[in-house]
Every structure is written in C-alpha cells, then in structure tokens.
Amino acid sequence: MVQSNYIDSFVHIAKGIYKLQIEVPPSERELISTFEQSYYGQYFNLTESNDLIGIIVQFLNCKCVKAACSRLMEFYVPDNTN
C-alpha cells in the first residue's frame, strides 16, 4: 500500500514545477496538472495500489519531474521519512 504522505510529496513537486516555471511537455501536462491540483491525494484512489503505483511511475518518469527533482532545494517538499 502506498502511503498518502508520499503522494503529498508528489503534489509539492508538481507545484514546484509551476513555481520554477519548468517547461512541461504536452504529453505530460495532464498528469502534472492532476498532481498539482490534488490535495492530500484526494484525486487518487489509495485503495487500488496497483493503479496508483502505475500513476507514480508515470509521474516520476516525466522529464519535467526529473528537472524539478534536480532543483529540490528551490521549493518546499515535506520530509516524509519519519
């Protein structure tokens, strides 16, 4: 099961993409927008972990997400390691 606090980190990454004005390719816009507009994973069904894992893999493979992750110190992402 994927914990919702991990999803919350992805929301902050998506918001950081827009804050840092990182270019989002057309093929990634819908997914990034979905994460950016979600709040505490409310747009994701956390009980269906297989589908959620697929969404997370897609998100992490986005070029703009990789660009944002290389600049994590420039925007807020909560520490969910506790």
UniProtKB/TrEMBL annotation:
It comes from the Eukaryota. InterPro entries: GproteinA_insert. One of its GO terms (biological process) is signal transduction. This is DUF2887 domain-containing protein. It comes from Meloidogyne hapla (Root-knot nematode worm). The lineage of its organism: Eukaryota, Metazoa, Ecdysozoa, Nematoda, Chromadorea.
